[in-house]
Amino acid sequence: xxxxxxxxxxxxxxxxxxxxxxxxxxxxxxxxxxxxxxxxxxxxxxxxxxxxxxxxxxxxxxxxxxxxxxxxxxxxxxxxxxxxxxxxxxxxxxxxxxxxxxxxxxxxxxxxxxxxxxxxxxxxxxxxxxxxxxxxxxxxxxxxxxxxxxxxxxxxxxxxxxxxxxx
Length: 167
What we know:
Blueprint: H1 2-8, H2 31-39, H3 43-58, H4 61-76, H5 79-94, H6 97-112, H7 115-130, H8 133-148, H9 151-165
């Protein structure tokens, strides 16, 4: 089930660091609101933000611009969507580093797919998410077994499927 939650967190690989999704973003130039939020942070949270700011400043300008655009897209979401996205992001961050890397690699491969293939995968994921828990469990078990197959075994399985389904 954790893997299913991890799959849902794919989009979060590109999200900025944790933020307070429930609070509306302050208007640009609203120094008083920003100052108040800063004052409410713990010393540890402030240190984390300082470190992230240093890392951000060390990035090339085009990466900084891309991060700013992602932040603006996040802020433009309706509060419910933003809250849900942040929940998924937090779930992603709680995963072991190895699983985070694996998801990021899979997401990179997903982005390289054709729009048609991505649409097929989105549709299949939607069906899985809407399925009853028992069916989702069966799917996850089949996926685990598929991953354990060698490339040759996978090719044989694909051929058998094509023969049975006339493709």
